[in-house]
Description:
This protein is α/β, with parallel strands linked by helices. It is 38% helix and 18% strand. The radius of gyration is 14 Å and the shape is globular.
Amino acid sequence: MVLNKIISGGQTGVDQAALQFAINRNIPHGGWCPPGRVCENGIIPLHFNLKETPLERDASEPYIPRSQRTIRNVRDADGMWVLGFGKDINNPDQGTKLAIDTARRLKKPYLIIDLDNPIPVQETRHWLVQHRIKALSVGGPSESTSPGIFDKTNSYLNQLFFVL
Length: 164
């Protein structure tokens, strides 16, 4: 398997699903999270191996919450996935737009996966191999903005793992 690290920012929903998936499958994980390990339901659990950014907002994107975390996670990865339901994909929030823009600016491959109509896992696997992804940044909406996204992300990642 090419993939040897999952990177995410620790927010509820997609981020925590990806990190928990990595832990459950003994895949190294990490990434950057906001100062104080803050997430929408309090504090990001300590079992997620995350580093705190010095600031919440990056100087290049001072109006976008948690921009420093987002930029660093994309920067430190070989490629990025954005997972979400169709409504999230078609109308992404500021953070998701920033992640995509950062991937484009840094010339990192990225894949947007609509969990309402997901890309077949064989195609997703091919994308990982084609781009030689070893460290993958995974992000998307929080659980409060997309109820059920944690479970749907976890299910998709588990399907992918069994195909690999």
